[in-house]
Predict the structure.
Amino acid sequence: MESINAIQPAHEDCPICGWDAATVFTQVHEKRCRRWKQAIADMNGYQPTPRPRVEVLIEELTQKLAAADDDVEAVKIAGALMRAHYDRSLGHAIDNGHYKDHPDYDAYASMLDLQGLPEGFRHLYPHQPGHIAPGFGFWEPADSKSRRLQFRAARH
Ligand SMILES: [Zn+2]
């Protein structure tokens, strides 16, 4: 049974887990948000930007990176873009209960095969293939079905 509040939308999406404002006062959101709060506490307060906001950020930064005037600017934008991808992947891991195994930012930045990364950025984070399939942004646990499916899809 949902509370009477279930019919009242909030003014904005949940700032913690990104849940849609229209159904913020529901038990299904409350349950999900509890998982996010626990994960954030376990990660010493690190709060990944949730979806859908992080998707918008990735879109904007991808366009900015393509339009960057010089390498210094490109490396700066690439860092922000990589952080957004990292947050999205980490959020996905929170939803799936794998966040404790998710690589840290430095490791993730080396694993992600992102098109258009400036050389200066790759120099800081040399590519480590085999962890995240080309064209994908989500880290999946090693030996998981999700990772196998990701690499199989990437080959086609
Ligand atoms: Zn929430």
In short: Helices lie at 27-42, 53-66, 71-96, 105-111, 119-124, 145-154. The pocket of zinc ion is lined by residues 14, 16-17, 19, 29, 33, 36 (CB under 6 Å).
